[in-house]
Write a structure and sequence with these properties.
Blueprint lengths: L2 E8 L4 E8 L6 E4 L10 E9 L11 E8 L2 E6 L6 E7 L5 E7 L7 E6 L6 E2 L7 E12 L6 E8 L4 E2 L9 E6 L6 E2 L7 E6 L5 E8 L5 E8 L7 E4 L7 E7 L4 E7 L9 E6 L7 E3 L7 E7 L5 E6 L8 E5 L6 E6 L4 E8 L9 E3 L7 E6 L8 H4 L8 E8 L1 E2 H6 L6 E9 L6 E6 L4 E6 L5 E4 L11 E4 L23 E2 L11
Parallel strand pairs: 11-29, 30-37, 34-38
Antiparallel strand pairs: 1-2, 3-6, 4-5, 4-28, 5-6, 7-8, 8-9, 9-10, 11-12, 12-14, 13-32, 14-15, 16-17, 17-18, 18-19, 20-21, 21-22, 22-23, 24-25, 25-26, 26-27, 30-34, 31-33, 31-35, 35-36
């Protein structure tokens, strides 16, 4: 098997890589560096090596390397040489096992794999009909009738077969499964794509979600959800520009780092941004600007340091790995660079604290869930605050009906559609209380007494089977305390908007 062997030479301010080839099964090299400027420090991490001309979706030639540095000494081992493409590694909490996305042949679909930290014992985890990638170790899940919690993983997949309502291309959604891939459960039901999951210390999952506003512009902010698909909420960057928020990674000291850009592909790079986990909706800010160059793949380390990939604004060189100041984003000393490959720091090979597990009320035998609002008069959106309370007369619930790969094959002109699930009166205090079909894309609209829509959701939402989803207001400030009164709607039975034939959307 032909693999690439990289030799390290000290260069002015960067460690330069040059390529040759060999036929050995595993690659291991140790080179002592003499340049003080090229010191990498002590690191034990996984690096994704991406050929400069690779297309991200196929990532042909992408390989996962284990890189260990000590002062000027660098050791590197390619872990995935038996794959034509590998990416998205995620290290277990005890530091012994790696999940990753791999393709065995050029025609293979992306599937989730598991291997030991030295690359041995690869085992395929998912076997779905679509592409599956971006695996993530999360906490355990517990139902009241379980004898013990079950460890779970999260990944991104097209197994559901839905097509984007605008582009008609396959959408991606988040799935959860047991460690061996059994008991898969789709946990996001956007009519567009969700991707890029990261787990918070609380056990909730932050991810990038696609929305299209009334202006027709696509935006990609961060939402948060439980690992059973319940309690979907905005997290950060939902309305800030640029529009793409992705590659979110939780760091120490209560911060989450991400890349903020105007483009979709991870290799396009963007600003380095940070979110204060204590106040995510109000603690979002850029650490860098355009003059600082392009950033990608932030990697907070357990010792509090931060690694990033960086390239110059003219994109004349591939992404190289640097240290960065975790408070300011200011670029620090270089770590690794390659003349012909992008290098992305993607995971630390170290033990780390486990995140919290989550209990669940989800019952997959049920077909509906509950949504209630204490007062739709409470909002942080100007178009809603400008309304008089009397203008909020009726709540309309719109159901998204996705086009699927199967329906498209039968009718190439078939597109996703929307239908009105029902309308219910909004109580005088702004509250409502409804029962809706589970695992179904829903969008809420507020209408006045004349039947005109005066406010609508930009994003799709959903409930899981037997979930009770409550909110204080209509896109309210998450730091708002609920009013100290009993809402009129919640003392009445929920108004059922579940069609008699409903069994939720296709899974």
């Amino acid at each position: 098997m032909k693999i690439s062997l990289s030799r390290v030479f000290p260069g002015p301010g960067l460690i330069q890589f040059y390529s040759c080839h060999t036929f050995i099964r595993l690659l291991l090299f140790v080179v002592a560096l003499s340049s003080v400027n090229a010191q990498a420090g002590d690191l034990d991490m996984l690096v994704l090596r991406v050929p400069a001309g690779a297309i991200w979706d196929e990532c042909e030639g992408c390989q996962i390397e284990a890189v260990k540095t000590s002062g000027n000494e660098v050791k590197s081992v390619i872990l995935t040489q038996q794959f034509v493409a590998a990416r998205d590694p995620s290290v277990s909490f005890d530091g012994t096992t790696i999940l990753f996305a791999g393709r065995k042949t050029p025609t293979s679909r992306w599937q989730i794999w598991r291997m030991d930290r030295d690359g041995s014992n690869p085992v395929q985890v998912t076997h779905g009909p679509g592409h599956s990638h971006s695996p993530l170790w999360v906490g355990s899940l517990f139902h009241l009738d379980d004898t013990a919690p079950t460890d779970r993983i999260i990944y991104v997949s097209t197994d559901h077969g839905w097509l984007d309502e605008n582009s008609h291309q396959p959408t991606t959604a988040l799935f959860a499964a047991n460690l061996d891939g059994s008991n898969p459960l789709r946990i996001t039901y956007n009519m567009l794509s969700d991707f890029g999951p990261e787990v918070l210390p609380s056990g909730r999952v932050v991810f990038t979600s696609t929305t299209v506003g009334a202006d027709g512009i696509s935006r990609h902010g961060l939402l948060a959800v439980n690992i059973d698909g319940t309690d979907l909420m905005p997290f950060a960057g939902v309305h800030q520009e640029p529009s793409w928020k992705r590659l979110a990674r939780v760091g120490g000291h209560g911060w989450l780092y991400l890349i903020d850009s105007a483009g979709k592909a991870p290799l396009e790079g963007g600003h380095l941004a940070a979110v204060n986990l204590r106040r995510p909706l109000h603690g979002y800010h850029h650490l860098t600007d355009t003059s600082d160059g392009l950033f990608s793949s932030p990697l907070p380390l357990t010792n509090g340091e931060l690694l990033v990939s960086h390239r110059e604004p003219d994109q004349s060189t591939p992404f190289a790995i640097h240290h960065a100041d975790p408070k300011t984003g200011r670029l620090g000393r270089p770590v690794l660079a390659d003349k012909t490959n992008h290098l992305l720091p993607v995971a630390e090979l170290a033990e780390r604290p486990r995140v919290n597990g989550r209990s669940s009320v989800v019952d997959l035998r049920k077909e509906s869930g509950i949504m209630f609002c204490l007062s739709s008069h409470i909002s942080d959106r100007p178009e809603i605050n400008d309304l008089q309370s009397g203008a909020m007369h009726t709540l309309r619930v719109v159901e998204g009906v996705p086009s699927t790969a199967e329906s498209s094959n039968q009718n190439p002109s078939a597109l996703s559609s929307h239908r009105i699930l029902g309308e219910v009166p909004i109580e005088s205090d702004g509250s409502f209380h409804i029962e809706v079909p589970a695992r179904t894309p829903l969008r809420l609209e507020i209408m006045n007494a004349e039947g005109e829509v005066v406010a609508r959701q930009d994003s799709w939402t959903w409930v899981m089977p037997r979930e009770w989803r409550g909110c204080i207001g209509c896109h309210e400030d998450r730091e708002t305390s609920p009013p100290n009164r009993l809402a009129e709607a919640v003392v009445k039975p929920a108004v059922s908007l579940v069609p008699a034939h409903s069994s939720g959307s296709p899974q």
